[in-house]
Structure formats: structure tokens, C-alpha cells
Amino acid sequence: METAHQIAPDLATIEELAHAARAALAAPWAGPAAEVVIRVEDFADPAMLQEVELESPFELTGLYDGIPLPLKSTMDQPEGPDTIWLFRRAILDEWVDRGNVTLAELVSHVFIHELAHHFGWSDDDIARIDRWWE
Fold first, then answer.
1. Order of strands across the sheet with 37-41?
2. What is the tens place of the pLDDT at every residue in 79-124?
3. Is the alpha carbon torsion for 32, 128, 63, 110 positive or negative?
4. Torsion from C-alpha of 59, 91, 129, 23, nearest 10 degrees
5. Prediction pTM value
6. Following CA atoms 102, 29, 24, 94 in sequence, which dihedral angle do they give, to the nearest 10 degrees?
7. 99: alpha, beta or left, given left = phi > 0 and alpha = psi -120 to 50?
């Protein structure tokens, strides 16, 4: 197979895969998940990395920015919408390193993991939704 004409998936492709993962959610979660903004960038910015105590932008594939639903109050004054950030270059590096999952599977896994922060899900809750190890 000739690779000279192949290019890495772009930001829009990663975003499409994340939207597909959200569209595949079951009814109890689909509505609230639709209210979370999905943003895709090549890398996390330095402030995000500092917040999660990471040095390399290749270590962070996704980040939830918002107030988890179980902690929300009518008294909250949000600075912006709840957002799930996906970082294309880190996702692509992990995808290549793994070599045993599709890009859609990996994006879905990262998206679900970040969405878990929004819903306040436990590890057991995540495992019921995202059967990543299968």
C-alpha cells in the first residue's frame, strides 16, 4: 500500500467521531450529553496541562471542563458551557502506539471517559457504558 498520499485525520474527523460516540449513547444519557460542547484541538494549552499536572501535551487525550451534574446548583454562575476537549495529536499518537483499536473506538473511549466526569460516573458506571477492554 502506498503511503505517500495518506494524511492523518484532521480536527474535523476527530470531532465527527466524537459526535458519533455521543449519538450512540442510550436515552438516559443522550439528552444531557447533547448539552456538552465538544471541542477538538491539536494539543491542550499550557494552562490545561498545568491544571492536570502534566508536562507533555502528548500525555493528555481529553479533558472535561465544567461543573459535574451531581454538583450543579441553581446558584452556580458558569463561566461558559460544559465542554469536553479532545486533543487530536495525543489521540493519534495513542492510536498508533496501540495498533489494536480503530480510531473511532479510541475517540469514543476518550469521549466517554470525559463525559463520565460530567455525569459524576464511577469506574463501574463507566465500565457498563464503555466496554473498552473487550
1. 37-41, 83-87, 62-65
2. 789 999 999 999 999 999 998 999 999 999 999 999 999 988 887 8
3. negative
4. 140
5. 0.87
6. -10
7. left
